[in-house]
Amino acid sequence: MENNKLNSIENKELLELLLTEQEEYYNYLKCVNLRN
Question: Which of 16-30 are b and which e, b meaning 16 or more Cβ less than 10 Å from the residue's Cβ?
Fold first, then answer.
């Protein structure tokens, strides 16, 4: 049971990391598009 809780915490952090990466990438693309 404890192990499950740990896994869900890790998954949550991974998900947040992914979302942050996506957002930064999206902002980067916007900047590139503005320059073109």
Answer: eeeeeeeeeeeeeee
- pLDDT tens digits, residue range 15-33? 999 999 999 999 999 999 9
Q: Which two tokens stand for residue 31?
A: 């900047």
pTM over 0.85: no
Nearest residue to 24 (alpha-carbon basis) of 34, 36, 16, 13 = 16
Helix or strand or coil: residue 1?
coil
